[in-house]
Amino acid sequence: MFKVLLCFLALSSIDYGYGLAEFGANESLPVVMWHGMGDTCCFSFSLGSFRTFLIDILGSNTYVKSIRIGNNVVEDYESGYFVHPNKQIDDACHQIASDPKLKNGYNAIGFSQGSQFLRAVAQRCPEPRINNLISLGGQHQGVFGLPNCPSLSSKTCDKFRKMLNYAAYTSWLQSYLVQATYWHNPLKEEIYRKSSTFLADINNELTINQTYVENLKKLNKFVLVKFSNDTIVQPIDTEWFQFYTPNQDKVIQPFAESNAVKNLGLNDLVASNKIVFLETVGNHLKFTTKWFKANILPYLNGDI
Ligand SMILES: *[C@@H]1O[C@H](CO)[C@@H](O)[C@H](O)[C@H]1NC(C)=O
Ligand SMILES: *[C@@H]1O[C@H](CO)[C@@H](O)[C@H](O)[C@H]1NC(C)=O
Ligand SMILES: *[C@@H]1O[C@H](CO)[C@@H](O)[C@H](O)[C@H]1NC(C)=O
């Protein structure tokens, strides 16, 4: 029914907000994807083939852009660790705003840390508009542990974790290592809020930026996907915008109660049905195309 209505609107060239009239009736909004740590925009075995899959299910006329930071995939890979998120987000905002194919808006899919980066894009750069924002295993309240970090040897991974635990809030690590900027130690909440150079800002935990609240309201849907058997992200609940109750690291605070949720106005978004909580069994980012088609496709093809 909704599809028929969309067809009608498109055929009669009525611009109802994000310019579907400019696309064919059977074409979807463009999609912007942002990869996770240890990955790149375009590896053929990861987002490169995912892009092909999206075009396959959304139609060959659908424009799919994968954010690349830097001049090539090597720089893009390194940026996932060493280019400050604020700089990466500025860069992505510029890439998106200067792409004529995105001028009428787009749907966005974040993979892992790419999810919180795309949320920052929504909050900081509302034009062109994100229609639906899909977060696949994003760490919206940060992490307090990376038990099996991807694409690093277990020894490197272990060193990485130790370093974050001891030095995440030093100014040099905050400016040098991406993962430090969303390291969230619930035993040191005060230090985290004052030192985090990225997450505490986009989560309105240090000061409340009302622009962030207003811009999040512009989303049609914010879809949070949690992987129930995730061994990379700790705690897994951060994928549903939850975190430990402050001053301990066992009990998870109810969604509605955290400062980040309250200060970003997310309880209002829940009340207006804009936040969708999805869970799928499997490890980090391990989903089947069948699951994706059944659960995510409707947010990309204009059904929702
Ligand atoms: C959209 O519909 C037109 C006309 O029916 C058709 O020629 C075109 O191939 C379709 N495009 C897609 C992406 O399905
Ligand atoms: C709030 O966020 C907007 C968008 O990023 C920014 O332009 C503005 O400077 C921020 N305001 C404060 C007080 O930080
Ligand atoms: C995956 O997580 C679900 C939900 O927590 C649990 O019921 C299931 O046993 C887990 N599967 C594996 C293989 O660990």
Question: What can you see in these coordinates?
Answer:
- With 304 residues, this protein is an alpha/beta fold.
- It has 14 helices and six strands.
- A six-stranded parallel sheet has the order 2-1-3-4-5-6, sandwiched between helices.
- Strand 3, helix 5 and strand 4 form a beta-alpha-beta unit.
- The protein is globular.
- The N terminus is likely disordered.
- The protein binds 2-acetamido-2-deoxy-beta-D-glucopyranose (3 copies).
- The site of one 2-acetamido-2-deoxy-beta-D-glucopyranose has 6 residues, from loops.
- Secondary-structure element order, N to C: HEHEHHEHEHHHHHEHHEHH
CATH-derived architecture: 3-Layer(aba) Sandwich
> How many alpha or pi helices?
14
Associated small molecules: 2-acetamido-2-deoxy-beta-D-glucopyranose
Main β sheet profile: 6 strands, parallel
Rounded Rg? 19 Å
| CATH class categorisation | Alpha Beta
* Strand ordering within the main sheet: 2-1-3-4-5-6
Shape: globular
Strand segment tally:
6
Give structural attributes:
304 residues; alpha/beta; Rossmann fold; 39% helix; globular; disordered N terminus; binds 2-acetamido-2-deoxy-beta-D-glucopyranose
Present the secondary structure layout.
Layout: H1 2-11, E1 31-34, H2 47-58, E2 64-66, H3 73-82, H4 85-97, E3 106-111, H5 113-124, E4 130-136, H6 154-167, H7 171-176, H8 189-195, H9 199-202, H10 210-217, E5 221-227, H11 259-263, H12 266-271, E6 275-280, H13 289-295, H14 297-300
Helix pairs in contact: 4-5, 5-10
The structure holds 2-acetamido-2-deoxy-beta-D-glucopyranose (3 copies).
One 2-acetamido-2-deoxy-beta-D-glucopyranose is lined by residues 124, 209, 211-212.
